[in-house]
């Protein structure tokens, strides 16, 4: 007859063997699950402001998908959503599933930080630049050469809306800053901005929508991105591009949306942002008329006296004082706008 001590040792041995087998089984299936996850196809959702649609969908998305799949062996699909930069930031704050956002200015990234979609300490990456230019009719019948010319009485201007459009914000800064840097006088700069907006008859929700309305006949002139104007010129839109002596250099940024990116998605999201600022991404931006943040190859028209938002105190100050303060408080309430969509003026049919 077995002793109680021997029986107890036997039970412990059986329990130990059973536990070891169970642990091995769990480890086996966990390993298979990890391998399955690591090999599963990925989807990356990229939100981009309106004028980036061609460069992203036609070139950068396919190139990065191919590079990622070659490096990792894992299938990748990138889905793009495009619209006005300010509108996109608002949608992301309301829960839109963006993994990466390409926004027209750093202020819109600040909105994402306030909305707790991006970590407070995150620094957005500048991926491309483009100066603000004047688009006018072929032959420049209004004789527009500088932003100050837009203040002449009698002009009928079209403008991207600063409430939704990053291009609208940049245009306000260009119109104000060009006079400030010439005169050194804030009162003169404010006077020029108000006189320009006295001539604004139509607002467009984005830079791309603004050029579409211009093509349909709205306005003697439009302040917009050089990049989008050159894209329109390349596709045969009849227009003339005027590069002012003093204009702001718009700086576009990319950021990973921390609130939406999962642990498995973060490596591809970060790799995508790295690709944008790498040599291949920078060359591709330049092919679509964006001046790269790096690798400027000298193929773009030189800028005589460019300035940046830092010359106006940085985005936090410039947005608060010029867009929210001066434009929204004093200029926007007195605008007298016309409806778009019907025959618009002498250029429309």
Helix-strand layout with pairing:
Blueprint: H1 4-39, E1 42-49, H2 53-72, E2 76-83, H3 85-93, E3 100-103, H4 106-114, E4 125-136, E5 157-160, H5 166-183, H6 186-198, E6 200-204, H7 207-215, E7 221-225, H8 226-234, E8 240-242, E9 246-256, H9 266-277, H10 279-287, E10 291-292, E11 305-307, H11 315-331
Parallel strand pairs: 1-2, 1-3, 5-6, 5-7, 9-11
Antiparallel strand pairs: 3-9, 4-7, 4-8, 4-9, 4-10
Helix pairs in contact: 3-4, 5-6, 5-11
Instruction: Point out poorly predicted stretches.
Output: 24-37, 341-349
> Number of helical segments?
11
What is the averaged pLDDT score?
A: 89
Task: Work out the helicity level.
Answer: 40-55%
Please name the CATH topology of the largest domain.
D-Maltodextrin-Binding Protein, domain 2
Instruction: Tell me the distance between the termini.
Output: 109 Å
CATH class of the largest domain: Alpha Beta
Structural summary, described in words:
This protein is of the alpha/beta class and 349 residues long. It folds into 2 domains: 39-128 and 252-287, D-Maltodextrin-Binding Protein, domain 2 (3-Layer(aba) Sandwich), CATH 3.40.190.10; 130-250 and 303-334, Periplasmic binding protein-like II (D-Maltodextrin-Binding Protein, domain 2), CATH 3.40.190. The protein contains 11 helices and 11 strands. The protein has helices at 4-39, 53-72, 85-93, 106-114, 166-183, 186-198, 207-215, 226-234, 266-277, 279-287, 315-331, and strands at residues 42-49, 76-83, 100-103, 125-136, 157-160, 200-204, 221-225, 240-242, 246-256, 291-292, 305-307. Helix 3 (85-93) packs parallel to helix 4 and helix 5 packs across helix 6 (186-198). The chain is elongated. Mean pLDDT is 89; it is low at 24-37 and 341-349.
């Amino acid at each position: 007859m077995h002793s109680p001590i021997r029986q107890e040792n036997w039970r412990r041995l059986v329990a130990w063997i059973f536990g070891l087998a169970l642990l091995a089984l769990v480890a086996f299936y966990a390993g298979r699950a990890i391998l399955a996850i690591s090999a599963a196809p990925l989807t990356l959702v990229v939100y981009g402001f309106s004028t980036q649609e061609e460069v992203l969908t036609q070139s950068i998305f396919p190139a990065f998908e191919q590079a990622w799949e070659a490096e990792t062996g894992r299938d990748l699909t990138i889905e793009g959503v495009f619209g006005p930069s300010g509108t996109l930031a608002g949608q992301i704050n309301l829960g839109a599933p963006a993994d990466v956002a390409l926004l027209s200015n750093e202020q819109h990234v600040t909105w994402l930080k306030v909305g707790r979609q991006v970590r407070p300490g995150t620094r957005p990456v500048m991926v491309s630049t483009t100066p603000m230019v004047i688009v006018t009719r072929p032959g420049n019948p209004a004789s527009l050469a500088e932003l100050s010319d837009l203040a002449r009485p009698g002009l009928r201007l079209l403008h991207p809306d600063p409430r939704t459009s990053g291009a609208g914000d940049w245009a306000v800064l260009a119109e104000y800053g060009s006079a400030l840097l010439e005169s050194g006088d804030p009162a003169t700069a404010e006077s020029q901005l108000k006189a320009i907006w006295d001539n604004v008859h139509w607002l467009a929700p984005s830079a791309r929508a603004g050029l579409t309305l211009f093509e349909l006949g709205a306005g003697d002139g439009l302040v917009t991105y050089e990049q989008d104007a050159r894209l329109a010129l390349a596709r045969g839109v009849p227009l003339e591009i005027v590069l002012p002596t003093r204009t702001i250099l718009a700086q576009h940024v990319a950021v990973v949306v921390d609130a939406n990116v999962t642990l498995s998605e973060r490596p591809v999201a970060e790799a995508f942002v790295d690709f944008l600022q790498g040599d291949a991404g920078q060359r591709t931006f330049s092919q679509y008329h964006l001046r790269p943040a790096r690798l400027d190859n000298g193929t773009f028209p030189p800028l005589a006296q460019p300035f940046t938002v830092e010359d106006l105190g940085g985005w936090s100050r410039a947005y608060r004082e010029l867009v929210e303060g001066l434009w929204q408080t004093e200029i926007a309430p007195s605008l007298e706008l016309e409806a778009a969509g019907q025959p618009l003026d002498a250029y429309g049919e």
